[in-house]
Amino acid sequence: MPVSGAARRLPPWAAAFQEATAGFLRGGVRWHAPMDGYTTFKVGGPAEAIVLPRDRHELALLVQTLAAIKVPWLVLGRGSNVVIADEGLPGVVILFGRDFAKIELLAEEAESAVVRVEAGCALARLVGWAVKRGLAGLEFAAGIPGSVGGAIVMNAGAWKKEMKDLLVGVTVMDGQGAIMTRRLEEMHFAYRSWGEPRGTIALEGFFRLQKGDPLALKTICGEHRQRRKVLQPQHMASGGSFFKNPAGQKTAGQLIDAAGLKGRAVGGAMVSPVHANFIVNTGTATARDIMELMRMVQQVVLEKFGIALEPEVKILGMK
Ligand SMILES: Cc1cc2nc3c(=O)[nH]c(=O)nc-3n(C[C@H](O)[C@H](O)[C@H](O)COP(=O)(O)OP(=O)(O)OC[C@H]3O[C@@H](n4cnc5c(N)ncnc54)[C@H](O)[C@@H]3O)c2cc1C
User: Fold this and answer.
1) Which residues pair with 46 in a beta bridge?
2) Is the overall model pTM greater than 0.90, yes or no?
3) Which of 24, 63, 217, 313 minimizes the number of CB atoms within 10 Å of its CB?
């Protein structure tokens, strides 16, 4: 098993981990791995370890081992909806590499097709794949960064559509390594949530897509991407929309804008002047800056409008 990283920084559980995984872990381990390069916000201290399992069997043995030696873990997609603490993450960050990125046409009918997509596949690749084959439904996702797994877990959406509208089922692994495929009707998707218990891993999604015209689909995707370019600060590091839209007439962005907070900054973190629901990293932000700005925005919006904004981004590793 290849091991990289400064040996003197190995966490106290490293020896037990190495001994327990020596017989099965073919994917590499990166010790003390800075996480800022793994998130679109470009902040975050080191994870104690990053592991890329090669297949489901290895992943199952890995989560069982980590449970047995009591080491925390989480799965990260492309890090486009997270803020990772400056202090980093304890335990193991599990990443899905090329071995978890297949797209497969499972069944084709006159009007539609069912496609199986593994969690590590980039959402952009899936959208491009579907458009090329004239399979419609995922155009809303054109321009949303991230992995298919992350998009399922976050129930990512735009233009009044979301992942659950296309999904017919999801294969998941529980915290004990057991794998099961759940039909959409058995799941509890909600706004920016897939409703599964903590510690559940999305392994693959099954999507029903409708037959369409590739050229027309390409045009729609292009329009969506263009709208994003105009409406969002895409040239700056961010985690996308920071807060969930609250129930009611106004979006989080409209409330933050109406509170006069566009351009407000804490350290290197700033409420984007382009889109008020984007907190951007102007280049020097720390996770602490982002959190302080988040709390300030929440406080001002609560005082002015009586509305408690809830973060959409996942805040990882904060004490
Ligand atoms: C510029 C920009 C624009 C964006 N626009 C949109 C938008 O229009 N709509 C929208 O909904 N979102 C948007 N986002 C947010 C983000 O892209 C989506 O939520 C995306 O689906 C997250 O995927 P990811 O792979 O990056 O997930 P990550 O950020 O890596 O993870 C998100 C959460 O899911 C968990 N997770 C990831 N993969 C798995 C897995 N396989 N199993 C279990 N848990 C997992 C992580 O632990 C974390 O809690 C935007 C972000 C940016 C930066």
Assistant:
1) 34
2) yes
3) 24
